[in-house]
Each structure stands twice: as C-alpha cells, then as structure tokens.
TrEMBL record, chain A:
<dbReference type="InterPro" id="IPR040520">
    <property type="entry name" value="Importin_rep_3"/>
</dbReference>
<feature type="domain" description="Importin N-terminal">
    <location>
        <begin position="26"/>
        <end position="92"/>
    </location>
</feature>
<keyword id="KW-0539">Nucleus</keyword>
<dbReference type="GO" id="GO:0005634">
    <property type="term" value="C:nucleus"/>
</dbReference>
<dbReference type="Pfam" id="PF18773">
    <property type="entry name" value="Importin_rep"/>
</dbReference>
<dbReference type="GO" id="GO:0006606">
    <property type="term" value="P:protein import into nucleus"/>
</dbReference>
<dbReference type="InterPro" id="IPR051345">
    <property type="entry name" value="Importin_beta-like_NTR"/>
</dbReference>
<dbReference type="GO" id="GO:0005737">
    <property type="term" value="C:cytoplasm"/>
</dbReference>
<dbReference type="Pfam" id="PF03810">
    <property type="entry name" value="IBN_N"/>
</dbReference>
From TrEMBL, chain B:
<dbReference type="Pfam" id="PF02751">
    <property type="entry name" value="TFIIA_gamma_C"/>
</dbReference>
<keyword id="KW-0804">Transcription</keyword>
<dbReference type="GO" id="GO:0005672">
    <property type="term" value="C:transcription factor TFIIA complex"/>
</dbReference>
<dbReference type="InterPro" id="IPR009083">
    <property type="entry name" value="TFIIA_a-hlx"/>
</dbReference>
<dbReference type="InterPro" id="IPR003194">
    <property type="entry name" value="TFIIA_gsu"/>
</dbReference>
<dbReference type="GO" id="GO:0003743">
    <property type="term" value="F:translation initiation factor activity"/>
</dbReference>
<protein>
    <recommendedName>
        <fullName>Transcription initiation factor IIA subunit 2</fullName>
    </recommendedName>
</protein>
<dbReference type="InterPro" id="IPR015871">
    <property type="entry name" value="TFIIA_gsu_C"/>
</dbReference>
<comment type="function">
    <text>TFIIA is a component of the transcription machinery of RNA polymerase II and plays an important role in transcriptional activation.</text>
</comment>
Length: 945, 107
C-alpha cells in the first residue's frame, strides 16, 4: 500500500479502533511508513486541523522520530523552511490538543539540537524573542508563555537522551549553558509575578511549567551563585502552593522541590561552599510546612507525600554536602543552621507511626546517618574529637529512636507478606544504623542499651504482654553491634549475657526468644574469649531445641558457638548432646535443622574421650544408620527418597565435623556448605604428625572411620536402587567426600571399597559428583588410587571422556580436572599410562567434537586444559591422534577448511606452556567451526561467556 | 548503554548458548543474536534496578583483595556466610563486582 495521507489516516484509525490482529498489522505498516522518506511530506498533511487528534498525534510523533533518526535526509538548504514549518505548526496547535503540542515542542527541540551552533547559532535567544505575546497576537499571552516554557523544558531533556556525536554533544552543551542566565531570568520573572496573585488556571499552569523548566535546566547544571534568586522564588512557590487552595493538585510544590533538589545536589555545587550554606538558610524555613502538616495530621489528615518530599530535599542536601556540614559545625556562624538541619533529619527518622503500615518516611534518612558517620571517622583527629563531642547527643537520640522504630508489631498476622518483608529489610537497615551509632558512641552506646535492657526487663516482669517489644528491640540492637565490639570488652557484655539468663522465657512472645538466640550466635567469637558466660546461655540454647518455633535460631546459634568455642564447650557437652538427642527424636525439627544440629553434635563429640564418643554414636547415630539400612531395601518412592536424603545429609555433616585430630589453623577448613550437596571441594593438605593438636590422639582411630566402615555396605545397597537419582548420588558422594577430608590417610583400608562404589555409580549412570570424588582421591594419593584391586581405571577414564559431552558446566569441569590429574600423573604410574595410551585417541576425538560445536562455548576454557596436559605428557601420541582426526571429511565441523584445521593442530602442538594462548587458539577454532568467526556477535559475547 | 556484566550469569550464559545453537543451525543470523544480547542487557539492568526488593546479609572471614577501577568496585572475599532470615549458606570464595546503579538510570 502506498504511503498516502488517506491510507495513513485509515491505518491510524485501524490501529486505535480494531482488534489486536488488525492492530498488529496496522502498527507494522505505520512503523514502515515512519521509516520511509515519504514521511517528511505526509506529516504536514496529517497535521491539518481537520484531522482527528489520533492522526495529528501520529504525525507529530513521526515528525519527532524523523528529526532524531533521519536528520541526514534533510539537505541543509531546507533547514530554514523546516524551522518555519515547525514554528507554524506549534503556533497553530497553541490551544491544543496538548498531547500534539507537546510532541511538536519535542520535535522542535530535536531540530535545535541538530542545528546548534552552526546553522542556528542563537536558537535559544531567538526562541525567547519570538515566543512573546507581542509577536503572536492571536494567541492568549499565558498560552505563549506556556509554549515557550514547554520548549525550554524539553530542550535539556531531549539533550540528555539524545545520541549526538561526542564532539557535537560538547558543542551543544556549551551553547545551552551560554544561555543559562537568560533562561533563568525568564523563569524568575514568571515565578515572581505570579506568586502574588494567581488569577486563573492558565497562570497556575504556567507557574508549574516554570518550575518544571527550572528543574530541567538545573539538572543540566547552572552555577550555584546564579540561582540564588531563583531559589527564593522556588521556596516561595512551595509555600504558596501549600497555603492557597488554587494550587492544590497542581503539582507545583512537587516540581518546585524537584528543582531545588536538582539545584542543591548538582556535582558542581561543591565549588561554592558559602553559596551552599546560604542556600541552606533559604531552605530551612520549609520545615514550617512539615510542622503544620504534622499538626494537621492529628486533626484532618496531613499530606505525607509532601512531607516526604521536603524531607527528601533536606536529606539530599545533607548527603551531598556532609563534609561541608561537618566543617561548618566548627564555625560559630553556621553552626546553628547545620544543627537545625541535622535535627530535622533526626525528626524524619523519628516519624510518627509504624513503618510500612502507617508511615514510609522514616527510612529516607537512613543513608544520611551512614554518610555523616563515615565522614566523621575520616576526619583528622582534632576535628574528629570536636565532631564526636558535638554530635554524640544526636547519635544517642538516634539510637533511642531506632530502638522504638525497630519494634516488631504486636500482632503480625494482620500484616501482608510484602509488609513483613519491608519491615524485615527496615530492621536490617536499622541494625546497620545501630553500628554507625556505635562507631560514634562506642562504650556509651553499650551503656545506653544496657540501661534500656534493664528497664525493659523490669517492665516485662510486671506486664510481659505489654513490654516484650521493647525488650526484643534491645536484644536486636545488641545483636546489631556484635561485629564491632572489641573482643576484650569486659564491662557491658558480661552483664548483657548474664541478663539473658533472667529472661522470663515462658511468659514472653517467642519472637523475643528468637532474637535472644540470634544475639547469642552473633557474639560467638567474643564468647570464645570469655567462656565463663557460657553457663548463662546454655540453658537458653537447650530450651530452644525443644520447640519447633525456636529450633531454627537455636540450631543456628549452637552452630555458631560450637564453631567458635569448641573447646570451651566441653563442660556442657553431655547436656547439649542429650538435648540434641531428645530434639532429634522429638520429631519437631525440620530437615535443615536436623542436618544443622549434626554440626553441633559432631563438634561437641570431638572434644570428648573416644569411649564416650562411641557411646553417644551408638545411642544417637545408630538408629539412623539402621533406618537407612531399612530404607534402601524399599522400592523407590518419594517418601523413601526423602528419608534417605535426610539421613545421608546428617551423616555427611557428622563426617565433616567429628574430627578428633583437628588441623592447625593454617590448614584448610572442611567445606560444609549447607546450601549445596556437592559443595566446592577444598584442598586438604597432607598432615604430618607434628601438626596434630593432640599428639596422643595419633594412634587412635577416628570414630568416623568406624561409622564409614559400617555405612559403606549400606551405600552400595543405596546405589543399586537409586543410581539414577542425582540427589541421592550427590548426597552419597558428598558424605564420602567429607569423610575422606576428615580421615585423610586414616581412610587407606577403606579406599578399595570406596573406589568400587564410585565405579559402580559410573557404570550404572555417570554423575559429576562421583568424578569429583575420584579426582580428590587421585590428587591426594595417586598410589592409593591405583593400588585398589579390582578398580577398572580404564572404565573411569572413559567415564570422564564421556562426561565431556554433557551440557552442564559443573559436570564438564569435574571431568576435566579428573582427566587433567589422570594424564598429568600418567608418566609416573604405569597403570595410568596404559590407560591413556589405549583410550587417549577416543579422548582426542571427543575433545575435537566438543570444540567443534557440540559443547557450549563456556566450557572451552576447561577443554583446553586437557589438550595442554596431553601435550606436556604425550606429545607424540597427541600429534598422531590429532592429525588422524582432522583428516576425516567435515570433522569436527563442515565449516572448517582443511587448511584451518591443520593450522589449528599446528598451533595446539606448539603450545606447551602458555595456557592463555592455547585457550585463544581453541576459542578461535571453535568460532570457525560454529560459523561465528569475525561476527560482531562473537566479539561482543563474553569470551568464554 | 547498559552494563554487560550480567551476561556472565547463569541466565546470560544460557541465553548465549541458545543463541550460539540457533546460529549454528542457521535459524538466526549473528546480527539478530547481537540485538537479542543487547536487549538482554537492557532488560536485566532494568529488572534488577527496579524489581528486586529482597536483601540478605553476609559476613566474610577475610577480605582478600579490593580495588576501585573505572568506577567499578571489586571485592574478593574468603569464607563467606550468607544469611537470609533463617537460612544460611557458606561459600569459600566470593567475588563482588559493584557498578554504580544510580548514574546508569538517572538520565
């Protein structure tokens, strides 16, 4: 269809008034019309006043799109006539429709950006002169002013979003900035004349437009000293808009506040410190509006949005100029204003009502308290002390405010899940703010918190249902500062932990106890240095294990404590173990908690004599082993699987933690990620006898050995039934891995059986977890690996090779590091050598297939490692195998020519040391095989993803 | 222009894998693939900036390395514990790459 005015009109109507299928078609056709050169002509026809508003809007939008995207189609000799047409169109739409007029103004500003400064050097000044009521007698004067302001507003906005060439952008910016004084003066005049007597709707509209325009130019950047008068007018507009009913709903206050915020926060403002402080003086009276609104709040409902906007202005100012504020605090002239500002922000933090439910304002200030504290700490010692002295009372009040604001709701059930989540984040922010308070107040904060805690405890003893919230928020605050308190603090913390002993748990809301447990966990490191407090808190922890609601926090806190204070826990070991056993058998714990509790069990058992350990293991663990033994005889079902997984994970956790020959600090901790079953394998160093903490233990057999020995047959049985289930195999391998990491050399007698297990798992179905485990054994003790009788090394090698083709990166990674280790050790161990010689060709074929496009590009990096290992240890064979492979037609990809394949082989064989270079070679060849070489896409997508 | 760092995430990698395959089988051109990738950058930057409200805390045993280069902070952490409400995960190594999210969307 031709792009004629008639057809277009028809299509626009179809677009707005048809069903979605027709609309889609019309949209496509209209977009094509916009892109066509004919658009330059038809827009003017469609802008005719007789057309419908939809058609006019389409025309104005098309005009803008053309000016932005197809400017090169306009020959310079037509610039002048185009300008004339644009201005005429704007004049003819001066009384609306507004949406068309707005588009035309944007189109004109796009035109200005292209013609500044060469073709239309004084564009802004000329517009200011042309768009005057005297030149346009047919248009009402307010309309003229409005149109001028609309154009001036969109000009900087269009500039910010434009994609001009870098040089042109700089030129245009300069031109625009040259005109700042004139624009500001126009705005000042409008804002000044109209504040006194706004007589009609248009006048109000013009004032709003003027403040929007100011916001737009201020964002571009106006030197602060040039805006002082403008600031006065904007502040006056905010006052006017809140006092006069005509201005309500116009958005004048919001746009004026926006403009002031842009003025106060522009990055250049720091060059004018004294003007900034004068500006602060002009802004401070706005607090009267907040006070008035809050008083009205009690009677007829204040405007929270307006209050928030004014607070936001103060906070933005303070955040941008926090350094300046601190410096001015020390000068007598400025001190009063600065303190007033800080008090205002404190008042914002202390906004009345419950956060998330009744108010949303208090969270605005949280960022400021961090910035201020950060700047105080960064001050020179002399200034630091002065600032701390001046601001300590503020941070004290802040801490008290935070205690109140962080209180939990009386009844949580009335809150939606979104509100609860908001409150949780808010409380976390408050916890952070409490830390900042600590940075300023140090000991004084602990003193304050302790006082509040005692007060809350006393109140709770008379009326716990009324006062539990203050108690909880105190505990929450103590928890928040745990990380920063010095390890040798000995005045307040002992008293705090002793107070926990006195909590009337049974009368309190569970949420108090949960927070108490979390606080205890947070102080684990400190408790390790002051173990005498343990007797105060163990009862709390043990009580927690017995309740389903408290168990998550109780197990978590116990885990923290047994991690950090293992040896100090010895006196409480029996108490904890008995409680754990009762909890595990009580059936109230969830899966994650059972597994987590085994961490504590393992760590506590490890400090007992071996006899006691074995005794507890029999009592506590054997039932689970027996259950497991039974579960694996059942036919696979969801219930059986859940049961097996739980017990396997519990065993796994015990294996990781029950270590009676712990390593010294320099050695790597075992990996006990709760989140993943596979985890990341940590390198476990070989242990020498001197490194053992307790030399006497060396002859002793690790209890884990007996458990493992007992469990291996069960694992075999589990594998027979569950080999196809990734979760079960992962859990099984993870248990084995943790056992090996604890046992180290002690596991020797069990290695053949473990290897059989891995092999069996692979023969039934390959899983990366098993290969990862095999790699660990191979790396740790290769001799051990090959000595296992009946272990089919060839089959393991082939499994690794096959795994390379899997799409999952972690699987390929596990296979790669297994194969690299295998190949690297193969010159020293004849058993491995035979395997590589027999099955290496298969491996090389597979590698080429993967590089040639079978595998995702993200694994190329790993595949190169195998090529490198092969080249180092089996260079002749590799050369032979590679050459044989590439002589097959179309292998690994028909896209690679024979020449390219030979070049690739040559480069691979040449590279025996530089891993990175080899990776590049492999990547390049892979791109050739995939048809991606030389494309923008390949260059842009991440090298190895 | 949006940040491209999210290409190296599970979602980004999977997208690139799919695009690779589509090109390999001649279903799309590399030119289209690059458009898709750029749209991905835009969408994920926007989504992460505007739609994510969750928050979690973590604690690192050790801050191994930190640097601030080209307006990008990089932190390498060891022994990191992540906590979100009642859940917890431990990770050996964490790398944090932090770009200025505000300036990207301010204009």
């Amino acid at each position: 269809m031709e792009f004629t005015a008639e057809n277009l009109e028809h299509a626009v109507l179809q677009f707005y008034h048809s069903d979605s299928a027709v609309r889609g078609h019309a949209h496509q056709w209209l977009t094509a019309a916009q892109a066509s050169p004919e658009a330059w002509c038809f827009v003017w026809e469609l802008l005719h006043p007789s057309k419908s508003a939809e058609v006019q809007f389409f025309a104005a939008t098309t005009l803008h799109t053309k000016l932005v995207k197809s400017w090169h189609q306009v020959p310079p000799e037509q610039y002048a006539s185009l300008k004339k047409q644009l201005l005429e169109a704007i004049a003819s739409y001066s009384i609306g429709p507004k949406i068309v007029l707005n588009r035309l103004c944007i189109a004109l500003s796009a035109y200005v950006l292209h013609t500044l400064p060469v073709h239309w050097p004084n564009a802004v000044l000329e517009l200011l002169a042309t768009l005057q009521p005297s030149n346009l007698p047919n248009i009402p004067p307010e309309r003229t002013a409005w149109i001028l302001l609309e154009i001036l507003t969109v000009l900087p906005e269009e500039f910010q979003s434009s994609h001009l060439a870098h040089a042109q952008k700089g030129l245009v910016r300069n031109e625009l900035q040259k005109n700042v004084p004139q624009v500001i003066s126009v705005l000042q005049n409008i804002l000044a004349t109209d504040t006194s007597a706004p007589n009609n709707e248009t006048a109000v509209e013009v004032m709003c437009q003027a403040s929007c325009c100011a916001a737009s130019w201020l964002q571009l950047g106006v030197p602060l000293p040039e805006c002082e008068k403008l600031a006065d007018h904007l502040v006056a507009s905010v006052f006017a808009s809140t006092s006069s009913p005509q201005f309500h709903q116009t958005g004048l206050a919001e746009s004026s506040l926006d403009a002031l915020t842009n003025m106060a926060t522009h990055p250049e403002t720091h060059r004018y410190p004294s003007t900034c402080l004068r500006l602060l003086g002009k802004l401070l009276p706005l607090q009267q509006i907040i006070q008035a609104q809050q008083q009205r709040d009690c009677t007829e409902g204040g405007n929270e949005e307006l209050v928030s906007s004014i607070y936001s202005l103060f906070i933005s100012f303070a955040e941008t100029h926090s350094r300046l504020l601190l410096d001015s605090l020390l000068s007598d002239d400025e001190k009063t204003n600065v303190m007033q500002l800080i008090q205002l922000i404190l008042q914002c933090s202390n906004s009345p009502g419950e956060y998330a439910l009744e108010e949303n304002t208090s969270q605005l200030a949280l960022g400021f308290w961090y910035i201020l504290q950060d700047d105080i700490i960064a001050s020179e010692p002399e200034q630091f002390h002065l600032c701390v002295a001046l601001l300590s009372p503020v941070y004290r009040s802040l801490a008290e405010v935070m205690l109140r604001k962080s209180m939990l709701p009386f009844v949580e059930s009335a809150w939606t899940s979104e509100e609860k989540e908001l409150l949780r984040c808010y409380r976390q922010d408050i916890a952070d703010t409490m830390m900042y308070c600590y940075s300023i107040l140090r000991d004084n904060l602990l003193e304050l918190l302790h006082g509040k805690l005692e007060e809350a405890l006393e109140n709770c003893s008379s009326d716990p249902r009324m006062w539990w919230r203050s108690l909880e928020s105190c505990l929450h605050a103590f928890q928040a500062v745990a990380e920063c308190v010095d390890i040798d603090e000995s005045r307040h913390l002992p008293r705090f932990l002793e107070a926990l002993h006195r909590l009337p748990y049974h009368q309190l809301d569970t949420r108090v106890v949960i927070t108490a447990l979390e606080a205890v966990g947070a102080y684990a490191e400190w408790i390790n240095a002051h173990p005498f407090v343990l007797s105060h808190i163990i009862p709390l922890l043990v009580t927690g294990l017995g309740s389903g609601d408290l168990a998550p926090s109780a197990t978590m806190a116990l885990k923290d404590l047994t991690r950090d204070c293992q040896t100090s826990m010895a006196p409480f070991a029996h108490h904890i173990l008995q409680a754990s056993q009762a909890a595990l058998r009580g059936g109230k714990l969830k899966l994650g908690e059972c597994v987590r509790l085994m961490y504590t069990v393992g760590r506590v058992l490890a400090v007992l004599p071996v006899d006691s350990i074995m005794h507890y293991l029999n009592q506590l663990l054997m039932p689970y082993v027996e259950e497991l033994q039974y579960l694996v005889t059942l036919e696979p079902s969801a219930a059986a699987k859940a049961g097996i997984l739980l017990r396997m994970k519990m065993l796994s956790m015990l294996f990781a933690t029950l270590d009676i020959k712990p390593r010294t600090e320099n050695e790597t901790e075992p990996d006990v990620s709760e989140g993943s079953d596979v985890g990341t394998c940590t390198t476990v160093q070989q242990k020498t006898p001197q490194q053992s903490a307790a030399p006497g233990n060396n002859e002793q057999v690790q209890p884990v050995f007996f458990v493992l020995q007992r469990i291996l047959p069960v694992m075999h049985a589990a594998l027979d039934k569950w080999y196809a289930d990734t979760h079960v195999v992962q859990a099984l391998c993870s248990a084995l891995k943790h056992a090996l990491a604890t046992l180290l050399d002690d596991c020797k007698p069990l290695v053949p059986e473990i290897l059989m297990l891995i092999l069996k798992s692979f023969q039934l179905q390959p899983h990366p977890a098993a290969l990862d485990l095999a790699r660990q054994i191979l790396k740790k003790n290769p001799q051990l690996f090959v000595s296992g009788e009946g272990v089919d090394l060839a089959a393991l090698f082939q499994c690794g090779t096959m795994t390379l083709s899997l799409p999952e990166v972690p699987a390929v990674k596990a296979a790669t590091s297994f194969l690299v280790n295998f190949v690297s050790q193969s010159r020293e161990l004849p058993q491995l050598l035979t395997v590589v010689q027999a099955y290496g060709e298969e491996l090389v074929q597979r590698l080429l297939q993967c590089i040639g496009g079978e595998s995702p590009r993200s694994v190329l990096e790993h595949l190169s490692d195998i090529l490198l290992a092969m080249n180092k240890k089996h260079c002749d064979n590799l050369s032979r195998w590679l050459h044989q492979a590439i002589h097959q037609d179309g292998f690994p990809s028909p896209r690679a020519s024979q020449e390219q394949k030979e070049q690739f082989v040559k480069m691979v064989l040449k590279e025996r040391a530089n891993k990175r270079k080899l990776q590049e070679t492999v990547r390049e060849f892979s791109l050739i095989c995939r048809g991606l070489v030389g494309t923008d896409y390949a260059a842009q997508s991440s090298p190895f993803f | 222009m949006s940040y491209q760092l999210y290409r190296n995430t599970t979602l980004g990698n999977t997208l690139q894998e799919s695009l690779d395959e589509l090109i390999q089988y001649g279903q799309i051109t590399p030119q289209l693939a690059i458009k898709v990738l750029l749209q991905f950058d835009k969408s994920i930057n926007m989504a992460l900036a505007t739609r994510v409200k969750s928050r979690l805390t973590f604690k690192a045993g050790k801050l191994n390395t930190y640097r601030f280069c080209d307006n990008v902070w990089t932190f390498m952490l060891n022994d990191v514990e992540f906590r979100e409400a009642q859940e917890m995960a431990k990770v050996d190594k964490v790398k944090i790459v932090a770009c200025d999210g505000k300036s990207e969307f301010a204009v």
